[in-house]
Amino acid sequence: MHTTRTAATRNRPVVTRTAGLGLFGFSLLLITACGSGGFSGPNANPASTTAAVPSVEPTTTVPAPQSSTVITFPPTTPAPASTQPAPTIPPTTQPATTTPAPVPSVASGLLDLGKGVGVAVPAGWTGTNNNGVVKLTDGRLQITLVVLKRAPGEHPKDIVDEFVGLLIDPAGPADYSTCSLIWNTDAPRPAMEYELFYALQVQNGSIQGGLHTFIRDDGLTLLYDVWAPTGVTGALPDDVFVDLVNSFLDAPQLATPAALTMVPQFEVTTIHPQS
């Protein structure tokens, strides 16, 4: 493994910059039967005191009963049994339960960059993790780390240009070195590293930085951007840096691998004129 030292010359980069819902109506029918009653007036004749002779009504002959007529209903013929087969209801097939792939985790004590990659905070340094963007500092050096899922086989220039356009160019006028391939490996899986240096003019002076871009054959990408005021030197401790790179190489595979697009070097695209 090659070594890296200062923010300006170190071969290992860092990702920097934070500048980024019934009524039931019913009626009741009341039927009332009313009988009309009468009464005698004051001038009515008094009732007779002579006993009434009962009259005998002639005998009434009861008519002979009429013969009954019997109504005969024809026998009910049962409906023929159905010859149609009973409908067949196909069995219900429950969809297979898909268990989501477990989210890779990192060892205890590491800052989680996502996708199974982690980094330790060196003694004397401080570290923060904001939605997968990790920042490390010793009070002078500033390091930004980001892990991305890119297309397998993507050209490294596309990745580097995107980082430059989003995070470095907007900070102020900048000069960039050629971006060069400085390392590659086939084990434990194909991967490569590109290095880019830059000098950036800011309001209170200037800074120097280095961007290291690690790319695997399955598209997993680690951006390591380190920067400091011009004249400040230093580096992430070697053991922490090596463990970070190994964590990146050993992380679970993201996609079907494709051959790395490996080119010796290229110039970055920037909005700033280059000297």
> According to CATH, what is the topology of the domain at 111-266?
Protein Transport Mog1p, Chain A
SSE run: EEEEEHEEEEEHE
Shape: elongated
Proportion of beta-strand residues:
25-35%
Cα end-to-end separation: 33 Å
Report the strand count.
11
> Average pLDDT, to the nearest integer?
78
Largest sheet: 9 strands, antiparallel
Polypeptide structure, described:
The protein is mainly beta and 275 residues long. The chain has a domain at 111-266: Protein Transport Mog1p, Chain A, CATH 3.40.1000. The chain has helices at residues 156-168, 238-250, and strands at 111-114, 117-119, 126-130, 133-137, 142-149, 174-176, 179-185, 191-202, 205-216, 220-229, 265-266. Strands 3, 4, 5, 6, 7, 8, 9, 10 and 11 form a nine-stranded antiparallel sheet that branches. The chain has a two-stranded antiparallel sheet with strand order 1-2. Strand 8 (191-202) and strand 9 (205-216) form a beta hairpin. The protein starts with 110 loop residues before the first strand and ends in a 9-residue tail after the last strand. 27% of the residues are buried.
